[in-house]
Amino acid sequence: MELTLLSILALVVIASIVISKYTDNGGNPYPFNRKESVFTTVEASFLQLLERSVGDKFKVVSRVKLIEIIECKPGLSKKARRAAITKAQNKQLDYVLVDKETLNIVAAVDLVNNANKNGHKAQKDWFVSGALESAGIPHIRMKVKSGYKSAEVRAAILFKLGKKPEPQGKPRNRNYKPAVLSPSQAKAAATQLAEI
């Protein structure tokens, strides 16, 4: 009888400890509020700019885990596979460009802020760059700054992808010439805007 009472008392104590770990002081197991936005101000502004710049060619997917766009090569040992997956699981890309028609992955885009404000990457993540390079996915690192123009961003991205910039818009009159950057201008713009 005493053993039964002690067992019941022990179960009650254990149950109360477990319950207290999953509730806050008010007893609410879900102590959350809705955030105002999914994106920071910088991320939202750059997403809109990116969509204006390359939205006719690519879909832009944001906040993609690295492990969702790469996979381990066949023939790895279980230990090597586990180590690689563990490293890749906690890495996140700011944006991924996807072909509009085939939905194939085209490139990964990360925002870079040398001042490291707003939580953006300040230093190059060599693991991410190496993993993307190994998988054959271009990694475009765009510096955070105001004043980007859509044509500049488009030219920089297309240059990084090895494609020639295309004319934007239709001529309004006979004397109109679309702003097409020469290869040297595109290279200069790409160097200013993006890092490899």
Q: Descriptors for this entry?
A:
196 residues, alpha+beta, five-stranded mixed sheet, 40% helix, DUF2726, QueD like protein
Q: How are the strands of the biggest sheet laid out side by side?
A: 1-2-3-4-5
Q: What is the tally of helical segments?
A: 6
Please summarize the sheet with the most strands: 5 strands, mixed
Helix-strand makeup class: alpha+beta
In total, how many beta strands?
Answer: 5
- Proportion of strand residues: 15-25%
**How far apart are the termini?**
74 Å
Q: SSE string, helix = H, strand = E? A: HHEHEEHEHHE
Helix content: 25-40%
Which overall shape is indicated by the principal axes computed on the Cα atoms?
elongated
The average pLDDT score comes to 80
Unreliable stretches, pLDDT < 50, 5 or more residues?
A: 171-181
Radius of gyration: 25 Å
